[in-house]
Amino acid sequence: MTVDVHQHLWTPAFVDALRRRTTAPRLDGWTLHLDGEPAYEVDPADHDLTGRLALNLGLDLALVSLSSPLGIESLPPDDAWPIIDAYHEDALALPAPFGAWAATCLSEIDPARLAKTLDARDGVQNDAKDAKDDGGARGVGPGFAGLQLPATAVRDAVGLAGVAPLLDVLTERDLPLFVHPGPATEPEGPGWWPAVVPYVQQMHAAWYAFAAFGRARHPRLRVCFSLLAGLAPLHSERLANRGGEGRGQVDPGLFLETSSYGPRAIDAIVRELGVDIVVSGSDRPYATAPDPALGDAAWHAIAVTNPNRLLNGKESRK
Question: What backbone phi and psi angles, to 5 degrees, belong to 98?
Fold first, then answer.
C-alpha cells in the first residue's frame, strides 16, 4: 500500500470559490493573491486531474489537502465555510487513488461540524471495506483520512487549547492530525522567503509545542508534521542543553513527512529518531517525493509501512 500523504489539487468548485472573492485569499483568473506573499501565477496544468492521475501511477493512496498558507481556515465563518465546503465536496468525489484530509474553520471552533464531516466517510466507503480489511489505509476511496490544521493554529499552548475540542474528535474516531504550514503574513525577502523562513519556523514551533503542551492532553492522538517539522528534532541537543527533556526518547505517535527535503535531511532525522516515524509526502504539484537513498527496506518503511500505521494506528499486513 504505497502512500503519499501530502498533495494539493485545486478542483473546480474550490477554484470557483476563490474566484468569487474580492479580498485575499482570492484568484483573479489563475493569479493568486495572498496577504504577505507576492502574487503567484498558478499553472492550470498543475491541477489538471488527468495529468495528476498519470503522475500518481504506482501510488495506492494520494492524500490531498487544503492549501493552508492561503489562510482560508482563519477567515470569518461566513467566508471560510463556503470555500471549505467546496473543497470537501470535490475531495469526496475524487477517484482512486485519491483520499483527502478534512479542513475546518478556526475562527469559530465547531467540533460537531467536524465530526459530521469525518463521519460522512462511513456512508460512502463500503467499496473500500475489502481494501481496509486487507491492511489498506483508511483513506482508500472516498472519505477523509483525518484533519489538517495549519501550524499557526498549534504553535503554542494557547493555540493547542483552542483546537483541543477538534483534536478530541479525532481521538474519538482514532484518526490522525496533519500539521501543514499556515499563512506567511509578514512580507519580507525574495519569492522563496515564505517557504524557507516562516513555514519552517511555524513547523518547528508546532513540533515543540505539541510535545510541551499537547501530548499530555491528547495521549492517543497520532500527528504527522509536514516538511520534517522544519527539522525541529535535530535541535534536541540544544533542547537538552537549555534544560529541556526528551533526547533519546521517541514518541511513536508523532510522524514526520518528507516534502521539500532530500536524502541528507532524511538521513539526519533517521539518525535522530529512527526510520519508523518518517512518512513519504511530495507536496505535489510544488515538489516531488524525495528518494531517501537509504535502501529498499527504508523506502518500504517510509512509503508503505509507516504511512499505513499513521492512518490506521497499526502495521500494514501487506
Answer: -80, 140
Instruction: Write out pLDDT tens, residues 72-86.
Output: 999 999 999 999 999
Give every CB contact of residue 77 below 8 A, 6+ residues apart in sequence.
105, 107, 108
**Shortest CA distance to 185 belongs to which of 37, 33, 73?**
37
Give the full edge-to-edge strand order of the sheet including 37-41. Answer: 26-28, 31-34, 37-41
- What is the DSSP code (8-state) at residue 286? S
Residues 216-225: pLDDT tens digits? 999 999 999 9
* CA–CA distance, 164 with 166 (Å, rounded to integer): 5
User: Ramachandran region of residue 275, left (φ > 0), alpha (ψ -120 to 50) or beta?
Assistant: alpha
Q: Are 268 and 260 in contact (CB under 8 A)?
A: no
Grid coordinates representing 143?
472519505
Check if the beta carbon of residue 217 is closer than 8 Å to that of residue 163: no
**Model pTM score:** 0.91
Nearest to 225 by CA among 245, 200, 192: 200
For residue 84, give the C-alpha cell. Answer: 471549505
- Give the residues across from 179 on adjacent strands: 149, 225
Sign of torsion over alpha carbons 299, 300, 303, 306: negative
